[in-house]
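dumping the sequnces here before i forget
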Amino acid sequence: MSATQIVTWVVLVTLALWMLAAYNRLVRSRNEIANAFAQIDVQLKRRYDLIPNLVDVARKYVQHERDTLEAVIAARNTAKNAGAAARAKPADAERIGALAGAESALAGAMKQLAVVVEAYPELKADATLRELSEELGHTENRVAFARQAFNDNVLDYNNTAQQVPTNLVAGVFGFKPAAMLEATANEAERSAVRVNL
Amino acid sequence: MRFRRHEQTARQATGHLLALFVLVLIGLLLAVNAVMALIYTLTVPFVRGYPHLFFETNSALVLLFVLGGCWVETVRLREGGVHVARMAGGRAAQVSAGGDLGLLERRLANVVQEMAIASGHSVVPAAWVLPKDDAINAFAAGWGPDDVVLAVTRGALERLTRAELQGVVAHEFSHLVHGDTRLNMRLVGLVWGLQMIWGLGCSLWDTDELGRRRAGALFGLGLMAVGSLGWAAGRLLQAAVNRQREFLADASAVKYTRLVEGLGGALRKIADQQLHGRGGLQSAHASSLAHLLLANRGSSAGWRALWQTHPPLGERLRRLYGHEVLALAADVLAIDGEEADALMRVAPALPTDAAPGHSHAPPEAHRHDALQVPTSFDDRAREHDALARTRLWHGPGEWQAAMLALAIDPAASDIDMRWAAWQAVSADLSVAASVRREVVALGAAARRQVFTTLMQRVRSAAPAQRRLLWRALMQRWRQLPPTDASQWRALALGLLLGQRRLSAHAVAIATATATLERSAAAAHAATHQLAQALGAAPDAAQAWLNAAASQLAALGANAPRGPAAGLAPATALRSLQLALRVRRIAPMQRPLLLRAWLLASERSGLADHAGTGDALHLACLLLDLPPPASLLSPPQPIKQNRSA
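..and the predicted 3d for all of it:
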């Protein structure tokens, strides 16, 4: 084997190893995105599960405000159903739009509830409600952080997939750039559920 | 996006420093060889050349010392996060506790979960609190996924806003995500190895008993010189790496929270505490934890700054904000304007100047003086109110009273008499009376819920406090009639408090076994079906069947029949052993045993009986299993459809 041949082989093997590493890096990074997306879904669901508890506590004190409580529950149910529909087909813009609308309706109803709570001092004093409000804030944070982690992962992935020379590997194996999550579809959704208890 | 740039700078700086570390090692290797060769030439001048394998031996020796030292030190430091946190005087955050501190600790646990999501770290560390420390600080420690602990001082909980706490926790998460603890331990090990070369030199240079130096003394001197230089270089590099990792963690904390004011506010408050000389930790082990902490006090000027594990606070703040900032007053915060207001309503006597080391909830007596009789007449609402108030119990007097009150069967005809019997020896009458009022309002399930919470809290109390509680309880317990089925709780309490002298509870144990014995036959059938349902792996099923059968035999067939009061001492001792055997079941089999019990109680129609629920509940506590929700929630006890 001549020196040229050896050099050629070394170069080829190094190239192959590098491609392998680059491919694996891309796959890992893409899977992290999928995982981060699933996290968002988990957190949204958690929020839907929490709202009935809050309403239950409030119901004990504010018998006369049945309308407000019913509105919160109804909005929550709509949002939950819209969420389930969107989950089944995430690419469908119409379903995502419906979810965004339902979420903003829920936000409005929760605001109304906050106003009601303001008027009932003994409700504000309820220990369970205090814990629930911490819990609700916590849930909002979890949703927000899950979205943020998703976008961070997308950024890392896109950086890897578009930088020279990894973009060659990404091109050959069809790693398309991923889209960031547009957290806000409309103005109403931009304001998260806020309960000032 | 300044934080991304800072993150990258810190990463690159770490890389350079680590490369320097390798260079130091190579330099050390060369220096040792050169010095050895020189001394050899000087001391043995008439021989040309060097002995066979001279350089190889020198190099191998140095590498053995450095890498071996690294390994030994790493193993020594490889104590779990829980160990480190306990050494620092910490305890697990009480998520279900009531009161101010309970809410704060739950908030901490929540923040830890949020940051796990934000950082994409798959392991959620256990949230711990250092209750004795008023200085704002935090650390993360641990290796494996089961063992990671994130501990925060009480001062940090009380003096930081939620956003600031988030920043602190995010900083610690960065250390976890980037494996900084691991890196630091490796470096500590390497430096220790370098130190050992100096030590070897010392031992060669030392004179013997007669004051003579050995033949190799000069070699020792050479090793000392090289070793000390290497050690100093290693220490400086290690400190420099640590400082870079702190910068990296600061930048990552901003990345996770997207908020400079979070960590920034916390650091400014720490600066304030340090200005007033209140920045130190209480633990005697504080100095060995120094490199783990969020912030460490040290001189920030000149030569000595090079040895610090943490960059000066001013520099960290400058990088965070991009300009100079002032310290922020680190006062204890009210939980929230309105929340504090709500607390005041329950307890008007809220002390404003609580001494450090004390919780800020009002003392027991004040709380109970101020307690109002519930206004609602609905049974469920009353139970709910009482349950909410039990969350505020955290004094030893309340614990004692609650334990005793829970043990009394509210349906018993002579309840008032029993109550009076032990109330006579109770010092805190107002506390006892109000505790009793709450407990009587609780249903069976709610009582179990309260009992579970109390148990968790008692378990994490300091050993001395547990012993005190135990003694006080036993003193009063003897006044209760021994036939009471609820004496099961005495057994659970004894086991959970970790007291060895259980003979006093033989009767309670026997009563409990008798309770379970009633459903033993049904349990046998249920066990069999369960084993068949699991039948995919016949070996496992058979093993489980054997284990469960022996358990049930122990609990049922051998247990004495009839009322437990007239037990012979030998039988009582035997049942004692049997009850202890429950604790020896392998953890994997425990849930299966519990399911068998649940099934059995359901099929035998005993599920609705409060005594069965109590027995099952205590079995859960003894087995370290979370009690099923059906036992703790007010609606009907066990009504699951568990067809095998």
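The two ends of chain B are 57 Å apart (CA to CA).
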